[in-house]
Amino acid sequence: MYQTPIRIDTLKDAQAFVNLAAKLDQDVTLTDGTHNVNGKSLLGCLYSMEFDEIFLQTESPVGAVFEQFSILA
Questions:
Q1: 3-class SS at 53?
Q2: Under a CB-based contact definition with an 8 Å cutoff, are residues 58 and 36 in contact?
Q3: What's CA 14's distance to the chain center, in Å?
Q4: Burial of 66 per CB tally in 10 Å (0-12, 13-18, 19+)
Q5: Domain containing residue 25
Q6: pLDDT of 18-52, one tens digit each?
Q7: Where residue 23 sits, what CATH number does that domain have?
Q8: Average per-residue pLDDT in the chain?
């Protein structure tokens, strides 16, 4: 499991994130360590914006796909 801290600040960010996630052939999960939501769901992305910290979890590395959301860059 790969985990990366990310930021999703606006509705536009959430829509862009979901559009990218939908193109992947693997699960995309957003978590704060306690709650998990589907990263391919706009509702899930919007809910994750309430987390203190958001982590992207995937089965294989996809950092380049979501680089614009990374807080490590």
A1: coil
A2: no
A3: 9
A4: buried
A5: 2-69
A6: 999 999 999 999 999 999 999 999 999 999 999 99
A7: 3.30.1340.10
A8: 95
